[in-house]
Specification:
single chain, alpha+beta
Length: 243
């Protein structure tokens, strides 16, 4: 009998905890998808039913009139910022509230990745080494991703490929085969193609920030969570962004 009572108490405590956690956004008037206990909004990602980029885009598109929305990454509440003007305030005017990044890798497990620029809070000698490691990896990953998507898009759009080929061929003939940093600046269409590829397939899906001081996003209460992300990939795909 005592075991049953203890089980009921633990179950009630767990139910109360998850209720308090999962109503955190609704108490602040922030829109969100209804989370599942423990796995929260990460269930489809964990089960490999949806890629994290597709899951993020689904949330972004679900509430088109909202300036920001909420999600739970397991038990961690995160606010996704969608409004351009609000992004400007957070990243420029009110940046003092968002000096830190979220910790993605435990510093004790991997001191280099745990102290790279993405997770950086305080500069030390190890931080300098960590940045070098990050720059080395980021330089390979972002460039290779951009090149892969560029080749894919060019292959899918032969008219773009032909026009780009003609521009490069003309440049080659005009400069007698010489190709350097200065001369490549005249390839305007190449610049347009690369810029469009980076717009469509940005290497980084989102930018993150950690709110270190109470900040009013425009809702009745001050701070619904500490973690904020800016969904840059989806913002640049919206027509209204360019109006």
């Amino acid at each position: 009998m005592l075991l049953v009572i203890w089980f009921a108490v633990i179950l009630a405590a767990a139910a109360l905890y998850f209720h308090q956690l999962h109503t955190r956004f609704s108490r602040y008037g922030v829109k969100q998808f209804k989370p599942i206990p423990i796995v929260d909004n990460m269930a489809r990602i964990m089960l490999r039913m949806r890629h994290i980029t597709d899951d993020t885009q689904k949330l972004y598109n679900a509430f088109p009139e909202e300036r920001f929305v909420g999600r739970f990454e397991f038990l961690n509440p995160v606010v996704m910022i969608k409004d351009i003007e609000l992004i400007k305030k957070i990243t420029v005017k009110d940046f003092e509230h968002f000096l830190d990044h979220r910790s993605i890798v435990n510093e004790n497990v991997d001191p280099f990745f745990g102290r790279n620029l993405i997770s950086l809070k305080v500069w030390t000698d190890n931080d300098i080494v960590a940045q070098a490691v990050l720059f080395f990896i980021a330089g390979f990953d972002t460039i290779s991703s951009a090149m892969s998507f560029a080749l894919h898009e060019i292959a899918m759009h032969p008219e773009v490929q032909q026009r780009l080929y003609e521009e490069i061929k003309g440049h080659h003939e005009k400069n007698r085969g010489s190709l350097n940093y200065n001369s490549i600046q005249s390839l305007k269409y190449l610049d347009m193609v690369v810029s469009e590829v980076l717009r469509m397939w940005a290497p980084g899906v989102a930018l993150d920030r950690l709110c270190i001081k109470d900040y009013n996003l425009g809702k009745p209460n001050k701070q619904a969570t500490q973690d904020y992300i800016v969904s840059n990939r989806y913002i640049v795909r919206q027509i209204k962004t360019y109006k």
